[in-house]
Hints:
By secondary structure, chain A is of the alpha+beta class. Helices cover 53% and strands 10% of the residues of chain A. In chain A, the strands form 3 sheets. Chain A has a 5-stranded antiparallel β-sheet, covered by helices on one side. In chain A, strands 1-2-3-4 form a 4-stranded antiparallel β-sheet. Chain A has a two-stranded antiparallel sheet with strand order 10-11. The longest helix of chain A is centred in the first third of the chain and has 70 residues, at 80-149. Chain A is elongated. Chain B is mostly beta strands. Chain B is built from 3 helices and 28 strands. Chain B is globular, with a radius of gyration of 20 Å.
Amino acid sequence: MSSESSKKRKPKVIRSDGAPAEGKRNRSDTEQEGKYYSEEAEVDLRDPGRDYELYKYTCQELQRLMAEIQDLKSRGGKDVAIEIEERRIQSCVHFMTLKKLNRLAHIRLKKGRDQTHEAKQKVDAYHLQLQNLLYEVMHLQKEITKCLEFKSKHEEIDLVSLEEFYKEAPPDISKAEVTMGDPHQQTLARLDWELEQRKRLAEKYRECLSNKEKILKEIEVKKEYLSSLQPRLNSIMQASLPVQEYLFMPFDQAHKQYETARHLPPPLYVLFVQATAYGQACAHMKSSQPPRQDKTLSVAIEGSVDEAKALFKPPEDSQDDESDSDAEEEQTTRRRPTLGVQLDDKRKEMLKRHPLSVMLDLKCKDDSVLHLTFYYLMNLNIMTVKAKVTTAMELITPISAGDLLSPDSVLSCLYPGDHGKKTPNPANQYQFDKVGILTLSDYVLELGHPYLWVQKLGGLHFPKEQPQQTVIADHSLSASHMETTMKLLKTRVQSRLALHKQFASLEHGIVPVTSDCQYLFPAKVVSRLVKWVTVAHEDYMELHFTKDIVDAGLAGDTNLYYMALIERGTAKLQAAVVLNPGYSSIPPVFQLCLNWKGEKTNSNDDNIRAMEGEVNVCYKELCGPWPSHQLLTNQLQRLCVLLDVYLETESHDDSVEGPKEFPQEKMCLRLFRGPSRMKPFKYNHPQGFFSHR
Amino acid sequence: MERAVPLAVPLGQTEVFQALQRLHMTIFSQSVSPCGKFLAAGNNYGQIAIFSLSSALSSEAKEESKKPVVTFQAHDGPVYSMVSTDRHLLSAGDGEVKAWLWAEMLKKGCKELWRRQPPYRTSLEVPEINALLLVPKNSLILAGGDCQLHTMDLETGTFTRVLRGHTDYIHCLALRERSPEVLSGGEDGAVRLWDLRTAKEVQTIEVYKHEECSRPHNGRWIGCLATDSDWMVCGGGPALTLWHLRSSTPTTIFPIRAPQKHVTFYQDLILSAGQGRCVNQWQLSGELKAQVPGSSPGLLSLSLNQQPAAPECKVLTAAGNSCRVDVFTNLGYRAFSLSF
């Protein structure tokens, strides 16, 4: 095997190493290089795998030779040296081969490196190129979007619609044949048309301006003429005075009243103006009568004008329109040095009224008159009212009607919840705190009631959110409330008078059913009203059968409370009545307690509950003709009827001997109906029988 | 201080009227929806209100969830009786029975699906319907002011039979579960047992004639009825009594003075309600187990929500002479009230 390999190796060695020995010495450098290269070229020709085999083999050989040399040396001997020599030569050859192989390996390595490097550079170049291309693509895309998003100024211009454009634009602008198909040209044409139109409009604008100028000049001239008219008119007025007196036309008197009115504080002034206006409007509506003769509403000013004048002089020269809170401020600061004096004085000062007041007389149809006097509390900036009712005939005052027409309560709750006991101006509370007034209600009898509607008539509106804001009298507020308030006042007086009349009868045990309400009840009613008295609010609250009403919040302290007693035989029906000040738009509310075979109330007898429902919930059918002032009477009469029905239909207890106490006289279709065994409480008018609701 | 004085609630005309209306409201009937989550209640003004039990019972229930989801005018007169089928709510009162679709009732402006009037012999007053009862084979029995029981086929809407026998108007109906028999109790003081197959009266119990339960001062009327197999409990003018039907003998007389308007069997108890604030719970032996006070001065109807579909809404509701429906989550106390 060694010989084989050496044979193989030999030609190589000869080719590489032997060549320079064989070849001519004078070979040029190129030759040298060629030789060098030839070794490089040889690398290509040789198989690296085989080289590796050769390498392994050579190493083995070397090992073997070394081992043999060692062996020989240790043995020692003569011929050993020769053998060793021979073996050394052989090993030298093997070393040569190893060297060669080593060189080859180096060359291969270098070559491999070169190739890798070359390839890498190529890849780098390609990569760079790719990057460039990508960047270019991106840039182009950006350009494209930029182009697409480009906003032209013309898009913001509002153009006339396409149809209008073709209809109105002259053909030399619209050029329909060109622009129809080409949107670009079309837009251009439309823009042209827009420009044209705008030019025209600008022209028109200029014309209008010059026109306006002209008219202004004319107005100026006319104004001059008018101002020259004033002295002439004055002289005519002067001349007409004797004529006025002669003809009893009191224009001047009215004028004087207006003169006085100038000294009214703003809220009273607003009230005065609005009330006068409303009064005149009402008077004019009745055109048949001469104006100012029969007025439903008359307005007058009372009090001393001089005092009013004096009031405004010291602080400043009279400035009527100045808001009063300023004046008030002024006064409190002026008062400060004398703070040490009695608190009473300060209270009086705070509650001071304006010396002037407005009197309003509201006449009702039956000649009763409601006198209202409006005051203005300067320092509190609120208005109050005192009311008085005078009737055409002298009234016999029933005991129970005591509160009906009293100035204290007659106007209470004209609007829901407006009981006029506390100040409507939130700012007042702070003022009260300073002088130790707990509540205004202690003073209302003396000052009058500060109802909310009074403030509104005076144009004062107190927003709850900003209590400190200066409140200025407002005409429109007053005007918007005048008519409804006046109507409410009238209905209130009428309903109170009607109640007054009804109470007079009720106290004598007569239920005064009027003829136009007679159809609501059967002809024969046996139960009788025997008692009608007022009860105090506290007493009402303590009654055991009124708890429901109290719980429902229907028993406020502004209501009036009465107790009625209806009797038939041994049966006694107590009815506790809550009379809302808003009668008759808000019905009186009844709670019942029947004493007959034990005590029966709504909690233990369904039919008592139903009777309450009949008068309280179904009150609308008892109202009678408008304005339903008879409601209370009708409700009481209805209660009498209901009691009759209740007693007569009560089932007779077979176990008790003797005849029924209340024989059935009423005609009923059925006695009981439904799960709660209701009695037939509903009265059917023309036929006269009772049925179930 | 003036600021501290509480403001009197300003009541205008409409507020006063509404307050009075609520004050005089009576809730006659209740019915639980098939899903068990809603409760319908009918009042004396002919309105039906739908309450959501599930939202009122949920943990985040507010005051608003105790108000009706929707209220509508169903009848002209009071709504005396209501029952629910698996899809419809049937309501009756003023002589007519109307059907409403549960699924649509929660919407505004719901119209009735149909309305029927039983063939009455003409009279001046249209007789009322006091009781409705669903019986097998998809039929409905109506009874009330004309002293007769009318059977109505719900499939076709026709009135098929008339059962005559009562001499005064009928208050209540009850079904015997096992045999197709119906009991009716009326103002005439009799409980009559009807065989539905033959349409004949099979048994009559004149309660007021039994001395132990008669109370002449209260009248003879039978206001409520309930059955459980061979047992029947009835009350009204006469005392609340437990009867054995086969032998027609009163077995237990419950010691309560006030006339009872509604009675029902519940597990091994009898629940009854009537005049007075309380829901009474009785042992069958006649012993009063509990009296649970409600918020109304008198009760007219009890309703046990036992729909398996809504186990969380399993409550007892009681209504009567007020605008409130009391809800009892267990039988021990009133949890809260739903209100019109």
